[in-house]
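so my prof wants the structure for this chain in the tokens format not the other one, which i didnt know existed until like an hour ago. anyway here's the sequence
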Amino acid sequence: MARIGGNQLCRTGIVSLFLGCAVLWAPVVGHSDVATPKIPAAQGGQCVEPVEIMRRDHFDFLKHDRDKTVHEGIRTIKHSLAGCIDCHATKNASGQFVPINAEGEFCQTCHTYAAVKIDCFTCHATVPAVKMSQSP
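here's what i got, hopefully its the right format
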């Protein structure tokens, strides 16, 4: 029986470890098995920011506008939560708006995927505001 030297044993162990890690990491690195959320299309035209920026920074825009509105009384339109809801809310078969945070809807879909809790709608409306006529 042949004896295995220390260097050869060490190299064999390193190669085995490398191959073992490669097999374990292959599905993770490729991301081929990860299901991405099916996001409902917006109802409006062009978003106020490019999609990549909104996906990455929308919460910063909303927090900034929240702070400006609450602390300074400044209301802007560009990054308002109401504007997002007006554009991204969908209607059901009977023509009624579906809450934007309902199962499968715009906000809920991504936030579930990212495991992020949405707390905006503890205070804010989940459907677009309907303008009421002032006439009798």
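also thought this was worth mentioning. The radius of gyration is 25 Å.
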